[in-house]
Amino acid sequence: MTRLVAGNWKMNGSLAANRDLLDGLVSVPGVEMAVCVPYPYLAQARQRPDGIVLGAQDVSEYAAGAYTGEVSAAMLLEFGCRYVIVGHSERRALFGEGDVMVGRKALAALHAGLVPIVCVGETLAERDEARVMEVIDRQLGAVREVLGAAAMSGVVLAYEPVWAIGSGRSASVAQIAEVHGAIRAWLDGHGVSAGAVRILYGGSVKPDNALELFDVPHVDGGLIGGASLAAADFMAICRAAAGGV
Ligand code: 13P
Q1: Residues 90, 122, 160, 218: which is the catalytic one?
Q2: DSSP state letters, 51-65
Q3: CA of 224 to the centre of ligand 1 (A)
Q4: Which CATH code, of 3.20.20.70, 3.30.420.40, 3.40.50.720, 3.40.50.300, is assigned to 3-241?
Q5: Which of 99, 111, 122, 226 has the fewest CB atoms within 10 Å, counting from its CB?
Q6: Do 160 and 181 form a contact (C-beta atoms < 8 A)?
């Protein structure tokens, strides 16, 4: 399946900086490249190089109405989004998003015709307690509960160990292989057409480790934070996803 490399700009950027960044991107054959930008910059990012797709970083679980501050999936679609990240660990930890809310956001995205990129992953404490798959089972289970198994095959998953995000310390090849394999098996075991679901890895992916991380079985792309803010780094990671060409 075609690898997806999505840049999560998080709460970074300015009109001037975004223009430089977007102008520095060129689509890489064989890889789907996406930029997930802050809401106010969606309009700006509609002007971007051919072959780069657009995404957002969050979406409301509600369709429309009296929900001050929220942004609906239909609005994202109207601004040209294809993807939306839901359940990023920063939203779970800092903004109180629970497993069920993440499921509802994924459902709202799918209803509108967007593809949710659903993030899962454990904290360091949970890893130290050998609870990695217990946590991921709970996170995935809530999404399946809300979406149903059939619709869940329409999402993209991202395994992002919380301790690897922004730390400069990515998970090891062995750790990623183990969790991605377990997620694939989880999907198979829960009636989700696993072959259709891309599983991205996220957490300190950089140009110098991208090649080995993309080589891990069941890694179908990456969700890139810090390194997506520098065009040269993001391009190098996308080329690595294409097989290093
Ligand atoms: P970093 O690549 O900066 O570690 O961030 C990963 C991430 O959170 C992407 O969603």
Answers
A1: 160
A2: TEEEEES---SS-SS
A3: 5
A4: 3.20.20.70
A5: 111
A6: no
